Amino acid sequence: MQPIQLFDLASRQAEWLTVRQEVVAGNIANANTPKYRAKDVSPFQSVLENADVSMARTNPAHFSGNDFSTSGSIDVKEAALDQEIGVQESGNTVGLAEELSKSGEIKRQYELNTSLVGSFNRMMLMTVRK
Predict the structure, then answer these.
(1) At 41, is the secondary structure helix, strand, or coil?
(2) What SS3 string covers 66-87?
(3) Residue ranges of the domains in the chain?
(4) What is the pLDDT along the chain (130 residues), one digit of tens a residue?
(5) Nearest Cα to Cα of residue 75 among 19, 10, 13
(6) Do the beta carbons of residue 41 and residue 1 sit within 8 Å?
(7) CA distances from 77 to 17, 38, 66, 80 (A)
(8) 118 contacts 110 by C-beta, under 8 angstroms
């Protein structure tokens, strides 16, 4: 029987969501800071590609050599300039509406992640009990 990698994948996404929420919270906290440039993280798909993780892996040894430390796999970079906000008079590029939208998106993704893991866990427990 092959190990189930859904839990590992969900853990990596939860780590990515945590880093993204920290970056978004930092953007919101610095909304009035002069010359502050909004930041964002690389998409989760690129995190998987950088870690050489593919959904088609069948050998459990494929995951064994990967180090998923936050600093190595999740890139924090300057966010793309919001065309509605632009660069404000103070030099700040944070758009609160966009950052709050990102925060809601992160919440929905985290809820989906935990819901899928919970459902999968219940399914596995039902199979073991029978």
Answers:
(1) strand
(2) CCCCHHHHCCEEECCCCCCCCC
(3) 6-129
(4) 455 678 888 888 999 999 999 999 999 999 888 888 889 888 887 766 665 555 555 666 554 433 334 445 677 777 766 656 667 777 788 888 889 999 999 999 999 999 999 999 899 889 888 6
(5) 19
(6) no
(7) 15, 9, 23, 9
(8) no
Tokens describing residue 19 = 């880093």
Type and span of the H or E element at 39: strand 39-41
Contact in structure between 47 and 16 (CB atoms under 8 Å): yes
What residues contact 30, with CB distance under 8 A and at least 6 apart?
Answer: 36, 92, 94
| Whole-angstrom distance, CA of residue 50 vs CA of residue 48 | 6
Question: Which of 104, 84, 103 has its CA nearest to residue 23?
Answer: 103
Q: Is the separation of the CB atoms in 9 and 119 below 8 Å?
A: no
Please list the alpha-helical segments (H only) found in the chain: 6-29, 44-50, 70-73, 96-129
Whether 85 and 38 have beta carbons less than 8 Å apart is answered as no
